[in-house]
């Protein structure tokens, strides 16, 4: 499966998935070169007056009228059989974006009541990172990123920081600009040592030497 990008080598691709979506976050679509709607996420875009460049999925979570609405609104529409596919709708959208080799991918509507889908979407961050693409999941209360080297983070509007290993071990963790600093620390999967830190400065830096570390900025 390959869908040609609507613009040459897009810098920023936004994917709207079918999870819980705060409409205020859709403003990020204005900053994107390409917007993809994954299944019901495409309907959310259409309902807010945003025509996705690509709508993709099996569309088993929408009615036939809603499917027609998505099809008529979208610049490119690609549907799949609900049974005969090996990927979730969000992963189909994600692999479409990866093929274009953008600098950044932002996922909206990628968290929600289905923990299995939420965790699956978080794991997609590693696929992007391994291809050198900066990826993030954004919802009303969190920005979730993954690093295997260094991240610099602004304080606002998510003032809390939590670190969770996505590999068995993460070594060389150093924090600067936070209330509880770390220097050359090690985290093993299952540890909660680095949950709910806070920014002490307007900008903070997370550096690691080896492993994959989830970096979650949150607000209540």
Q: How would you describe the overall organization of this protein?
A:
This protein has 2 domains: 12-140, Rossmann fold (3-Layer(aba) Sandwich); 150-218, Thiamin pyrophosphokinase, thiamin-binding domain (Jelly Rolls). 20% of the residues lie in helices and 31% in strands. The longest helix has 16 residues, at 115-130. The chain contains 4 helices and 14 strands. The protein starts with 11 loop residues before the first strand and ends with a strand. With 220 residues, the protein is of the alpha/beta class. Residues 147-214 form the Thiamin pyrophosphokinase thiamin-binding domain. Its EC number is 2.7.6.2. Keywords: ATP-binding, Kinase, Nucleotide-binding, Transferase.
Please outline the helices and strands.
Blueprint: E1 12-16, E2 34-38, H1 40-47, E3 54-57, H2 64-73, E4 77-79, H3 89-99, E5 104-108, H4 115-130, E6 134-138, E7 142-147, E8 150-154, E9 160-165, E10 169-176, E11 185-188, E12 197-198, E13 203-207, E14 213-218
Parallel strand pairs: 1-2, 1-5, 2-3, 3-4, 5-6
Antiparallel strand pairs: 6-7, 7-14, 8-13, 9-12, 9-14, 10-11, 10-13
GO molecular function: ATP binding; kinase activity; thiamine binding; thiamine diphosphokinase activity
InterPro entries: Thi_PPkinase (IPR006282), Thiamin_PyroPKinase_B1-bd (IPR007373), TPK (IPR053149), TPK_B1-bd_sf (IPR036371), TPK_catalytic (IPR007371), TPK_catalytic_sf (IPR036759)
Enzyme class: transferase
């Amino acid at each position: 499966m390959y869908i040609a990008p609507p613009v040459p080598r897009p810098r920023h691709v936004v994917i709207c998935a079918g999870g819980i979506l705060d409409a205020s976050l859709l403003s990020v679509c204005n900053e994107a070169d390409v917007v993809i709607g994954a299944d019901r996420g495409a309907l959310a875009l259409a309902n807010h007056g945003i025509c996705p460049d690509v709508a993709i999925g099996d569309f088993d979570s929408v009615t036939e009228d809603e499917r027609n609405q998505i099809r008529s609104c979208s610049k490119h529409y690609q549907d799949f059989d609900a049974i005969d596919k090996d990927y979730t709708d969000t992963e189909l959208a994600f692999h479409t974006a990866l093929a274009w080799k953008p600098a950044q991918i932002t996922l909206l509507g990628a968290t929600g009541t289905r923990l299995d889908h939420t965790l699956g979407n978080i794991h997609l961050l590693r696929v992007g990172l391994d291809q050198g693409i900066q990826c993030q999941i954004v919802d009303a209360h969190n920005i979730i990123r993954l690093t295997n080297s260094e991240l610099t983070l602004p304080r606002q509007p998510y003032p809390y920081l939590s670190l969770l290993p996505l590999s068995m071990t993460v070594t060389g963790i150093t924090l600067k600009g936070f209330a509880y600093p770390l220097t050359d620390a090690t985290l093993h999967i299952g540890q909660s040592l680095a949950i709910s830190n806070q920014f002490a400065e307007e900008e903070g830096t997370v550096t690691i030497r080896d492993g994959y570390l989830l970096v979650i900025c949150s607000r209540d």
